[in-house]
Structure formats: structure tokens, C-alpha cells
Amino acid sequence: MPQTEFTPSIDSRPTYAALVPQGSAPALMVADAAGAAALADLASADAAVMDRAHVLLVGAPAAAADRIAALGPVSVHPAPDAEAALPLLAQLLSTARMGTQLYLAGGEGLIGQVAAQALAAGMAAGAIQAEHRGPVARRMQCVHCKGFTEEVETDPFTCAHCGLTLFVRDHFSRRLGAFQGVCVDAEAPGEIPETREIRP
Amino acid sequence: MTRPLLKVAAIETLSPLVKRFRFEDPEGAPLPVFSGGAHVTVEMADGDVLRRNSYSLISDPNDGSGYEIAVRREDRGRGGSRYLHEAVAEGDLLAVSPPANLFALDLRARRHVLIAGGIGITPFLSQLRQLDRAGQPWELHYAVRSRAEAAGLALLPESAHVHLHVSEEGSRMDIGAILDGQPLGTHVYACGPEGLIAAVADQAARLGWPAAAVHSEAFAAPPPGEAFEVVLAASGRSVAVGPRQSLLEALEAAGAEIDSSCRGGACGRCETAVTACEGRILHHDHWLSEAERAAQTRIMPCMSRFKGARLELDL
Lengths: 200, 315
Ligand code: FES
Hints:
The structure holds 2 protein chains of 2 kinds. Chain A is of the alpha/beta class.
């Protein structure tokens, strides 16, 4: 799947370009099923990126893990989902040193959560790169109940926690790794705009 | 800027070349507290020249009972440090600006590596107290030529995190080794001669540190030089700059409205447009880019001088 083209939006809405290899610097790489292809593209641009890389694959099929392992990273850690992957990531971050590059590839929910955790672990924003691959679903936080709804594909959508109908905003919290969802019919209850698929 | 008169409360010799000065309010009123790495500008009436030099504060940032600075005597300088060393006595009153900080700690960092060369130790003395109070981990590397010159040693806390590197004794500082393997979230701060700052920046870049984690403050004093003249465009007035006077000092003495803070070519405050230049600007600052220098259309009067027929400034 090719990389995603983003619709122009507010400056704070993160957009993601293609990953750029940073030579053989120590690296952490995190990708989901769609993102694994971006890691393969990265390695074909410069095979040295894998020399000191630890790769964390989230919800990727075994074949994808084999393909990445064949590129020669130091280690490959498969995890079934983000919840299982985050403790592994915490462990990799705790032993990482300054100069470590973080390469992220896949959906926005994964990118947002991993980047937030890396920043919290002290990684500088300048050491983090992300490339969007796969569906444009977003990880949303309801500004009313603060609950997170994963894989949101429509605007508006229903908060999985409090049931309000929420408008998908482009305001993104780097700390939470999520976009904001705001009640769409607060002024005129019941007046809900037509549901559309969200755009990148 | 108001520059209140402060009393020289104590002078102490720290090394053959370095003295510590303590300033207090003459009435004993508390002074504004500051943040680690801040500096003050001290005004000295040296004969008929009014000198202003900026010095890092070395006392506790939370202690408003006084401000302390450490001054290295630069015999080849313009004379400000020599004046402080020779002409100033305890009890004298000097105009001292409120503190300003161009070298603040990044408190989002999880660990701070401080690298000082020679008298570049000064800003770290106040920063260490701030870091200790905030409970933030740090390590300090202090490179000196000889133990006798290590004036800062007496002012440093007893700590296993203080590393002294004495080149005369063969223990040279290995910046690559210091930076290699630092945990995520480490920031490095360098203060001292330009060579040291460049070496820290080079090694950090080589190890893949993001630029946002690398901080520095160059320790520069305006160099003396040949006398020259400068013309103020607005009035057509000509101002003479003496050999041991900076262009900024000469402009201030002539009553020109000009902003300044670091007085060492680092903060950019004094940047001034050049409206005519027949000759060569001797750029000594760390502010302008190579292209701006070559164009000779901007000048940093706190550091830079001029050689040639005519220099006219937008003042
Ligand atoms: S006063 Fe700071 S650059 Fe001149």
C-alpha cells in the first residue's frame, strides 16, 4: 500500500511523510500489518538502518514478521495488538540511549500512541519519524468523558464510553496520541449532520 | 533599562586570575531571584569610558540576599575585568542590571550533562543549585589547563557527579565518551571557549543527538582593536570608537538608543542594520550567518569592529 496523502488542515494536525533512513544509528522500529511494508521500503533505501534496529510488529501476520526478520535487524518482537506491544516498547525505550532513532509506520492510532510513549520516555521529537500506511482510521478522545475510541472511520461517530455523538476534530494531542472528539449536537440536540467517511 | 546601584559586599580571590564579587542592595532589600544560567550586566566608570560587561551569576538562583559573579582577569581584554580586579573595592557602589537568562536549563530533560571549559564553569554554578533543588539528575565535566586555574573548584559541591579534567596532568576531556551511551531524555549544555562548544556540537551530531537537546553559551568578551569611526544615519553624527572600547559602549556613551543583553555576540539583541559600508566589518559575534556576514548589511555592535573608510548605521 502506498503512503498516504493528507488533506490540508490546521498546522498542529500531524501529517507524515515517508521514512528517511538515518544510516546505521541505533533504532527502534514499530509497525502494524500495513506499516511493515514501509519498513521494508526503508531498508531497501539503505540496508544499514537494520544494523542496530529492534523491530516491534503489532498485529502483523507471521509472513510479515519473517520478511522483516530477513532484513537482518537485531531483533523482531511480534505483538498481537497495541495493548500487548506497549509494555514491550516501554522496555525497549528504557534501555535506549541518546541518538536512538524511532521509525513508526502504520495507522494513526498506533503512531500516536507510540510517539506519545516515546516522548514521555524522554525521546526528542527530532528523533521520531512516522509514515502513515493503511486505513485512515483515527484514535479519538472524547473531550466530555475523556474515554478513547479506537479505529474511528466516520465523522461524526459515537463515543464508545458515554455514547455522545462526536465531531472528529483535527486537533491532536501529542501527549495522548489522540485526536479530539467534540459533541456535535450540544447546541441543538438531535440535529446531527450526515455521517461521512473521514479523510486523511 | 533601570540599573540599580548595588554595593560590593565582598571580594574574594579564587585563583591567581579569578575573583568573586558579591553584590547586595545597599539598604539590604531583597533582589529579584533568577534562574540558573542567568547573567547580569555590570556598569563601570573607568576613567572617562563607561564600561558594561555581562557576567553569569554563580550564586543560588533562589537567594535574593545578593548576587555573586566570578570574574577572570583578561589582561589582553578591553579593561573591564582589569578594572573590577584593580579598581573596585568592598563598599563601592556599581550599577548592576536585573538578571536575564540566555542559557536556561530545559527542565523537560530527564538528565543534564554540563560541560565547562575554564571560566565557562560560571553559569553552571547557579544551574547546579537549581537542578539539585528540582531533584534532577546531572553530571558536570569541568576541563581546565591546570589545577591552579580551576577557580570554580572551590565553588562546586562535593559530588561524585563532578568530573575534573586537567589537561596539564594528562586527563583530557573525551567529549565523545561523555556523550556516548547517555540515556534517552538527556540534554547537554556546553560553556567555554568556541573550540569546546564546536566539539560538543560535533560529537552530539555524530552520535545522532537531536539539535534540541544540545545547548551552549559561548564565552566571548569583545576584543580590543584599532580605533574607528561610525556615522549615525539619522543625525549624520559621527561617533569615535576607542581601541579599548566596544562599538556598543561607544554608541551608548554617545546616547544612541540601542538594545543589548549578553554583550557577547550571542543573544541577537543589539543587531543593527548597516546603511553604508566602505571597508570591512570585523564580525566577532556568534549570531549572524555566514551569508549575513559576507553581505555586510548587519552588525552586532557588542562584539564587532570596523576597518575602512566609512561605516554608517541605521541609528
Ligand atoms: S548584546 Fe547580545 S548579541 Fe549583542
